[in-house]
């Protein structure tokens, strides 16, 4: 689901979704004309909440707002420069309370929620200018806010929590159907907001994506494309991976099967120069794509523009999703793999990886076409009776995961089994955190184990400074006992020494060894 700066374009994807659904389901007036939407404040914050229901009447394209009772009012014409829009905020719920909104049929738009301060909207002759806190000079940049997106028509309700542009206010979305069953998605794990924020901060080169107030309050984490646009992130970050993935198909064929319910529809891609050409099963060329830039991938646009057709658009969507998830080049039938295969490698969309990783059901709208393979945080019901947005806690400690990465406090790199070589005697290193299984360990019975049940081990049971830290078959030997202290020291009690990044080497491939515990940053670790 794409988001844009002005409403007339921001809702195009929603309208397209609705039109497809209407074509499949015969139009009939099911569900109430005014759908109750309950906004519940379980955020744990004390500031006043302000709500807005803004969008377009998809029958005639009129742009406007909805009051609490469900009446839709078109916007008056704006100007150039943009003129301030009238205050159409709705008082939101206090702590622990609920406010009920009414959503009229045939509206596609957003429900905004802000904390402490009302949002500032503006009107142009073309439509409503959305808040864009990643843009220079945007008056909403210091406000804590977020939104959910929806479409309600005769085919039902679609409601999603979107992280396409930013990750800010934790909230879940729900829909209750005629049967009384409620569907919910978008709920963060306990401590999930902090886990996303800290995960981005600890990811080398990504820290500029976290936007805070001067008092330290974190307002939002920008999606990588938005962070790059304002100069807070490498504009060419994905280039090397894109080239590698694109060139992989100079010597092999990429098969795209874009429709899950039509496995017979296949397109075949091969790269020639910097262009990937696709043919259909009859050998006819049906689409061509120039090698995209990093910005094209973040936005799923430009070279990856996806028209609303049945050939080029579905292929473009599939390519963009595969590039975000870094499966293109590794998996030759797309869409391919599953969540365990996504976001592998040092260069990947760590923003989307972390957001998905910290959702209760693993679902999120981490980029525009995250709905490929149904990974999006969307609820739908063809006969809804009510909907909900639940503002969930910002803080709260998550229980430590059974399996986690071990991250250096010094530079944010992870303890790593190089090249997934789990052989006895393999020395451990540090590497950029990728989320790969070669960087996952479990504290079990005083040992530190890999997912294939090998143990971290001090070579030869040595108690000397400089002893190598390696893998070995688990044996119960004291050389395989490790404790991560509250101070962040990873200690082998037998040697009474700490796991240390040798020679203060800041690079990938730096080896680990045991050394006297001196409190240095190269000896400090935390679970990621």
What does this molecule look like?
The structure is a single chain. The chain has 528 residues and is an alpha+beta fold. It folds into three domains: 7-26 and 34-225 and 347-391, Sandwich (Thaumatin); 239-341, 2-Layer Sandwich (Metal Transport, Frataxin, Chain A); 403-527, Trefoil (Trefoil (Acidic Fibroblast Growth Factor, subunit A)), CATH 2.80.10.50. It is built from eight helices and 37 strands. The strands form ten sheets. Strands 2, 3, 4, 6, 8, 11, 12 and 23 form an eight-stranded antiparallel beta sheet that branches. Strand 34 and strand 35 form a beta hairpin. Helix 3 packs antiparallel against helix 8 (350-357). The two termini are 30 Å apart. 46% of the residues are buried.
Q: Could you name the CATH class of the largest domain? A: Mainly Beta
Supply the number of helical segments: 8
Distance between the termini: 30 Å
- C-alpha-based Rg, rounded: 25 Å
Helical amount among residues, as a percent range? 10-25%
Number of strands: 37
Label the structural class. alpha+beta
CATH fold category name of the largest domain: Thaumatin
Number of domains: 3
> How much of the polypeptide forms β-strand, as a percent range?
25-35%
Supply the CATH architecture of the largest domain: Sandwich
Average pLDDT metric: 91
Shape: globular
CATH superfamily (homologous) name of the largest domain:
Thaumatin
Main beta sheet strand tally, sense and closure: 8 strands, antiparallel
The residue ranges in which pLDDT falls below 50 over 5 or more consecutive positions are 1-27
């Amino acid at each position: 689901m794409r988001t844009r700066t002005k409403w007339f374009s921001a809702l195009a994807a929603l309208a397209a979704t609705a039109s497809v659904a209407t074509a499949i389901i015969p139009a009939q007036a099911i569900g109430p004309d005014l759908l109750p939407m309950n906004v519940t404040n379980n955020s744990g914050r004390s500031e006043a909440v302000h709500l807005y229901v803004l969008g377009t009447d998809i029958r005639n394209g009129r742009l406007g707002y909805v009051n609490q009772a469900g009446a839709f009012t078109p916007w008056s014409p704006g100007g150039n420069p943009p003129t301030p829009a009238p205050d159409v905020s709705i008082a939101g719920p206090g702590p622990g309370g609920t406010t009920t909104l009414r959503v009229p049929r045939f509206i596609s738009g957003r429900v905004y929620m802000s904390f402490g301060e009302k949002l500032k909207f503006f009107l142009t002759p073309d439509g409503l200018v959305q808040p864009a806190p990643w843009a220079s000079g945007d008056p909403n940049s210091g406000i804590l806010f977020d939104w959910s997106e929806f479409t309600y028509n005769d085919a039902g309700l679609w409601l999603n929590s979107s992280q396409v542009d930013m990750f800010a206010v934790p909230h879940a979305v729900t829909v209750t159907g005629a049967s009384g069953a409620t569907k919910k998605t978008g709920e963060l794990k306990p401590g999930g907001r902090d886990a996303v924020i800290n995960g981005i901060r600890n990811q080398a080169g990504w820290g500029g994506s976290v936007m805070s107030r001067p008092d330290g309050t974190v307002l939002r984490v920008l999606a990588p494309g938005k962070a790059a646009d304002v100069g807070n992130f490498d504009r060419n970050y994905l280039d090397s991976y894109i080239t590698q993935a694109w060139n992989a198909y100079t010597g092999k064929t990429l098969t795209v099967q874009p429709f899950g319910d039509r496995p017979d529809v296949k397109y075949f891609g091969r790269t020639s120069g910097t262009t990937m050409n696709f043919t259909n099963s009859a050998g006819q060329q049906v689409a061509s794509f120039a090698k995209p830039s990093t910005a094209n991938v973040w936005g799923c646009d430009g070279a990856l523009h996806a028209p609303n057709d049945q050939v080029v658009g579905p292929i473009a969507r599939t390519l963009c999703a595969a590039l975000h998830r870094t499966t293109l080049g590794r998996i030759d039938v797309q869409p391919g793999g599953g969540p365990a295969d996504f976001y592998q490698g040092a260069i990947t969309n760590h923003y989307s990886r972390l957001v998905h990783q910290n959702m209760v059901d693993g679902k999120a709208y981490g980029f525009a076409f995250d709905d490929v393979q149904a990974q999006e945080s969307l609820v739908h019901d063809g006969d809804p009776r009510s909907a909900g947005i639940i503002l969930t806690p910002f803080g709260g400690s998550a229980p430590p995961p059974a399996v986690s990465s071990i991250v250096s406090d010094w530079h944010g790199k992870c303890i790593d089994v190089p090249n997934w070589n789990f052989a006895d005697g393999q020395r451990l290193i540090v590497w950029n955190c990728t989320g790969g299984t070669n960087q996952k360990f479990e504290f079990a019975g005083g040992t530190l184990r890999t997912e294939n049940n090998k143990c971290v081990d001090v070579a030869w049971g040595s108690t000397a400074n400089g002893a190598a830290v390696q893998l070995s078959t688990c044996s119960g030997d004291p050389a395989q006992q490790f404790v991560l202290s509250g101070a962040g020291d990873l200690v082998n009690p037998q040697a009474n020494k700490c796991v240390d990044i040798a020679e203060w080497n800041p690079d990938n491939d730096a080896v680990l060894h045991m050394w006297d515990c001196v409190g240095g940053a190269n000896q400090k670790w935390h679970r990621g």
